[in-house]
Amino acid sequence: MALRELSSLEKYLGLKKPNKYTTRGDKKIPVLQSSNGTQLVGLLTIACHLVKEAKRPELLGDSTERRALAQQWLEYRVTRLDGYSKEDVKNILQDLNLHLQDKVYLTGNQFTVADALMYYGVHPLIVDLSIQEKEQYVNVTRWFDHIQHYPGVRHHLPLVVVLRNTIYTGRHH
User: Fold this and answer.
1) Which PANTHER family would you find in this protein's record (predicted)?
2) Terminal alpha carbon distance of the chain
3) Which residue in 30, 64, 105, 138 has a CA-CA distance of 20 to 30 Å to 166?
């Protein structure tokens, strides 16, 4: 999965020459053989390298605080989402829902590489949610739908239908 994510990130970043990746170990950790012969190992390391290679530093955050928040969510992606269990899903969605309560993106009002990689990681969770569950995590659903329509991000993933109409009008009859 990580290899397709990195390929999609390359396309989003507009990198013309696709990199060659391999994987390492049982967990299939991505490895990039760089042009100078060194190996870059790990989804986050490679993603940050690609952002710098594309000369798009704003995608890592435009301030010290936003860079720290982007890094925090990138770490969350690898430590909590990669290899999650069915029991973890509710906690992951609750964490995200609470964090996104007053934010458009994970770092506030600016799209970062953390949004793209979290979107890729959360996609399998959202696909499996019922309409009622999507309503339960309304902030995650809003963010997810926004990111899946963000130009150039979705690439290899199918579109997830998110209802925009509320089921209940709130009127008393």
Assistant:
1) EUKARYOTIC TRANSLATION ELONGATION FACTOR 1 EPSILON-1
2) 49
3) 105
CA atoms of 78 and 121, how far apart (whole Å): 9
Q: Which long-range contacts (CB under 8 A, 24 or more apart) does 157-162 make?
A: 157/8, 157/120, 157/123, 158/127, 160/123, 160/126, 160/127, 162/134
Q: How far apart are CA 102 and CA 163, in angstroms?
A: 20
SS3 126: helix
pLDDT band (50, 70, 90) for residue 165: low
**Which has more confidence, 142 or 86?**
142
Question: Which region, left, alpha or beta, applies to residue 83 given φ > 0 means left and ψ of -120 to 50 means alpha?
Answer: left
Q: Please answer whether residues 17 and 32 qualify as being in contact, where contact means their C-beta atoms are separated by less than 8 angstroms.
A: no
Between CA 170 and CA 173 the distance in angstroms is 10
